[in-house]
Amino acid sequence: MKRVDDFRLTFGKQEYVPIVVGGMGVDISTAELALEAARLGGIGHISDAMVNVVSDRRFDTSFVKDKTRLYKYNIHNTDKSDVKFDLDILADATRRHVGATMEAKKGDGLIFVNCMEKLTMNGPRETLQVRMASALDAGIDGITLSAGLHLGSFALIADHPRFRDAKLGIIISSLRALQLFLRKSARLNRLPDFVVVEGPLAGGHLGFGLDWAQYDLVTITAEVIQYLKQEHLSIPVIAAGGIFTGSDAVSFLEGGAAAVQVATRFTVSHECGLPADVKQHYYCANEEDIEVNTISPTGYPMRMLKSSPAIGDNIRPNCESYGYLLDGSGNCAYIISYNRELALHPDGKNLSVKDKTCLCTQMRNFKCWTCGHTTYRLKDTTRREADGSFKLLSAEHIFKDYQFSVDHQIALPA
Q1: What is the DSSP letter of 370?
Q2: Any alpha helices (H) in 275-389, and if so which ranges?
Q3: To the nearest whole percent, how much of the chain has pLDDT over 70?
Q4: Amino acid 243: pLDDT
Q5: Per-residue pLDDT tens for 177-234?
Q6: Residue 142's beta-bridge partner residues?
């Protein structure tokens, strides 16, 4: 019976354990988590979601405080078009986060950064370009482009000296998305180095509508692999979403995937950035406690725990401090929803915004508990302590369980 360790992900002449730890923001996929994956010979992701916030936490900078002070005159204004990101500061924060992570890297694996197109930041093109270029400047091994089609993203860094050196990949949820990307980027003569096929059971934002249950990762992955074979394109395909055991992973590797991307089981690792009490909520969740809703202002459905404090909250839009979801005209769907409810409840009492949430503030405060569909199975991966809590696991334990387990077995902690 085969194990994940019987396979290898190949980039050029280099081989890696075919396990990729997904990029969860805001700083849920911490540098520590990514570094463990790389040390063990796989690939770890950090996320550049709200990188100014991450820099303030990790390096004691004051980027958020300074931004709030700069735009404090606009706090009560519904028009947020004035609220801009200083691109030099954005570059500084990115270089700090990526650079410190890369300096700490040990082992034969790689560190990638997950870069979301939907972090529009009141300047979609300019801010995305700076985030990618700064990550390359800081020595990141690769960039995984997520949360969007990214039809023009490669072109934004085509002049960067590391454009053909770093590993560049995209996350897709359909063959059509891949075809659109390849058609658009053909003139650059630069294929993606890898393609992550993310299925409907993944956590966080989904590349599907509310009909997500009608799709399955096995079918989509097979379609993508077959298409690339027909087109004679040698691009590694990485399957993601709902892969809970090493045996699950082996089934995709035997089907032609080059690697698997996993994240849900790492949310309850010591190295994960979620607070310890939130990790216990993940452990305690049952299948009926998980939902796919449309409260994200990005326009994408999002999977999370129903008990997330962010759902139905009434927090005031905090764009002056954050504003990562402001479009190019300074608009955000949450602002519209909040102002609607405020008009109905001008005294501020009984105010609850149920259709959208202030994703920036809620994610920054770990109040939006996004999760994969298989989160309800986490309680089966550990032991219960004497006080009733569930024992947290090391990232190494989880990684090696994926790498060496067989017959859908899960190794419990000692």
Answers
A1: B
A2: 276-284, 333-344, 359-364
A3: 100
A4: 98
A5: 999 999 999 999 999 999 999 999 999 999 999 999 999 999 999 999 999 999 999 9
A6: 112, 167
| SS3 state of residue 80 | coil
Count of residues in the chain: 414
Evaluate whether 370 touches 26 at the Cβ level (below 8 Å).
no
- Residue 350 has what pLDDT? 85
Q: Which amino acid is at 61?
A: T
Q: Considering the entire predicted model, what is its pTM? A: 0.97
What residue spans define the domains of the chain?
4-404
Residue 334 has pLDDT above 90, yes or no: yes
Q: Are 136 and 157 in contact (CB under 8 A)?
A: yes
Residue with the two structure tokens 């709902």: 242
225, 322 contact by CB (below 8 A): no
**Superfamily name and number for 4-404:** Aldolase class I (3.20.20.70)
Smallest CA-to-CA distance from 308 within 297, 292, 322, 324 is with 292
- Which residue in 312, 388, 385 sits closest to 354, CA to CA? 312
Q: Long-range CB contacts (< 8 A, 24+ apart) of 99-103?
A: 99/138, 99/139, 100/31, 100/58, 100/59, 101/31, 101/34, 101/35, 101/46, 102/138, 102/139, 102/140, 102/141
- For the record, the structure tokens of 245 come out as 């055991």
Tens-digit pLDDT profile for residues 107-142:
999 999 999 999 999 999 999 999 999 999 999 999
CA distance 306 to 108: 39
**Pairing mode, strands 302-305 and 290-293:** antiparallel
Per-residue confidence (pLDDT) for residue 349, from 0 to 100? 83
Look up residue 80 and give its two tokens.
């947020």
Phi, psi of 293 (to 5 degrees): -125, -175
Q: Are 301 and 93 in contact (CB under 8 A)?
A: no
Question: Other CB atoms closer than 10 Å to residue 206's CB: what's the count?
Answer: 22
**How confident is the model at residue 18, as a pLDDT?**
99
Measured over all CA atoms, what is the biggest interatomic distance in the chain, rounded to whole angstroms?
Answer: 65
The Cα 375–Cα 381 span in angstroms is 11
Partners of 305 in the β-ladder = 290
